[in-house]
From TrEMBL:
Pfam families: tRNA-synt_1b (PF00579). Catalyzes the attachment of tryptophan to tRNA(Trp). It comes from the Bacteria. It comes from Paenibacillus lycopersici. Transmembrane segments: none annotated. This is Tryptophan--tRNA ligase. PANTHER family: TRYPTOPHAN--TRNA LIGASE, MITOCHONDRIAL.
Amino acid sequence: MKRVLSGIKPSGEMNIGGYGGALHQFLAMQKEYDCYFFVPDLHAVTVPQDPRLLNRRSKEIAAYYIAAGIDPKQATIFIQSHVAAHAELGWLLETQAHFGELGRMTQFKEKSHGKDTVSSALFTYPVLMAADILLHQATHVPVGDDQKQHLELTRDLAQRFNNRFGTTFAIPEPIIPSIGSRIMGLDDPAKKMSKSNPNRNSYILLEDSPEDIRKKIGRAVTDSEGIVRYDWERKPEISNLIEIYAVVAGESAAAIEQRYRGVGYGPFKQDIADAVIAVLTPIQRRFGEIIASDELLTILRNGAEKAAASASATLRNAKAAMGLLTLD
Ligand code: AQP
């Protein structure tokens, strides 16, 4: 059985970066795989969070999963901290991870850069991510470009553990979408579109109004050439806009390039805004219904129960393999 596990951190409001790199991909996967989509709140707290906002955002991310079309009858939707086995396996895997390899993680280097102090949890974050994946025996993990290195570490840890203690974990394969795996900031195509960017014009939120979407895309940086071409090397600003357009319109970059041959950036940007609005409007409507309903909490309760059941055998096997005393 092919199983997928993935999630979006509740570290800020959801934007179309996470939609393109994750949520949009989840939708395509739910029919083909046994899917576990979770809200990694334990990952969010590796950097300071406002407790009240974290609480609300965790619910919101789960509501966006459903509003975008994840069917809770097919997929298991849950909050990471509701299944204690994630933290427990995280600790066991930390005993197998090397200090040096964690220090080489690009995301850690970026997130700790220029900070006087960072939490030790930020340093061990990729090990918890490995635990999330291995605990549920995920065979496939959809990841954005930026998460490739963490998945490589997950595979290394699984292999190291299996070699040392006997086969316990499935070795997961990455699924990197050909389009949407890197959506960069609207203000700077060298930086990933991130929830934690303080510049609100750098991203389009899933909750943005049509007016805000038009404004933000209108202000998105371009070059002065006036040629719509998909070429990340030479035209990162335009390539990023094509990437966003391709995700929301379900078209290839080549088809978009073709259509805007000889047309300037004005109409191109207007059409992107229309396409983003067309995708987000129904999601926003459903989100409004779900977030206000009791159904969401029922879905999360059921999801946590199912995820805990799926986790228990692997956790027990991992503990027993390491020689920890078990009573069953
Ligand atoms: N801009 C993006 N382009 C493509 N994929 C992206 N993802 C996130 N942003 C982009 C992918 O979405 C999944 C969930 O990511 P996450 O929210 O758990 O963590 P993140 O990548 O750290 O997201 P942010 O927005 O940058 O959060 P902050 O600012 O809090 O660190 C992942 O598969 C990710 O690749």
